[in-house]
Every structure is written in C-alpha cells, then in structure tokens.
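Much of our argument rests on the idea that a fold can be written as discrete symbols. Part of our work consisted of pairing the sequence of a single chain with a tokenised description of its backbone. We regard such an encoding as a compact summary of how the chain folds. The amino acid sequence and the backbone structure tokens for this protein are reproduced below.
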Amino acid sequence: MTIIAALGANIPSQVGKPKDTITHAISSIREAGIDVIDISGFYITKPVPASDQPDFVNCAITLASLKSAKQLLTIFHEIEGQLGRTRGERWSARTIDIDLIAFGQAVLPNQKLWYELVNDPDPSVFINDPMIPHPRMHKRAFVLAPILDVAPNWVHPLYQKTARDLLIGIEGQEILEIDGNK
C-alpha cells in the first residue's frame, strides 16, 4: 500500500529555516515508528491561494506503516505542534504543514461525502476525520510535482489519473526544484 504525505513550510521554526523544519519533521516521523520509504526533492512554490506571504518549501514522502490514517494524522499534528504550528486562519503562513495525501487506494470517509466536500463551493469546508485522498491535492502543483519523485505510478483512486496526468491539467502554479532527491 502506498502512503503519501506532503510537507510544506514558509516561515522559520525553532529548528531553523523551512527546509530545516521539514527535514526535522521527517526525522520525527521516523522516530514515531513510521517507515519513511522515499523523500522527494524540495520545491519552492508560491502560496495557494495567492497572497503576500513568503514562498513555501514543499516535498512529499512515501511511508510504510500499520497505523490507521487517523493515527497517522494524529502523529502528524503532534509533530506540527512540536515545531510551533498553531492552527489559526486557513491558508496562512506556517512553520510546518504535514498532510496525509493518500492511504493506498482508500477513500475516506466515503466516496459520497468525499465528492460532496470536494465540490462544495466554499473551499474552506472540512471535516475533522481523515479525508483521503487529500481533497485539494489534485489541484495543487506543489503536491503533485513532489509526488512524481516518490510515487510516479500512484493513481488517484477516484479520478483514475496519475499525479503526472493531474499535474498536466494545472495551469499557473509555478514550482522550482531547489534540491534533488534526498
């Protein structure tokens, strides 16, 4: 089963610059007993939606774990908190964001609710339970480009498209790779 997480940061944390924070978060994921299989290159991206906040550093990782999606998200949120993330205004600048993008071919909470939430005209609508695949990942180059580094054959369980096919459909989101794999 392919488990994919995306990490992003655009302001410094207590461990350093955004790239340092992401690297530290990946180490913390390992320390939590989750196997990190692969790490993408690091990418510089503009905030989405567009704003005057600093550019983000983003990457993707593939994982192996016997933990549930909900358990993984709980661990990710704990790591975010340890690195100074405070949950405030949506899409604001942050020290770290760790999103669970895919959990094999699972669709959570279920296909009907997933489509309802993804198609809601209010893009800030969310639920507290894991929503897998991530509800906006198919619209974000900063998620899809790093996935190509670590899971090029992964197929979105609902759209039946690879990350490459989804990325082709996105226009106007500039990404710049700053570091190759690992």
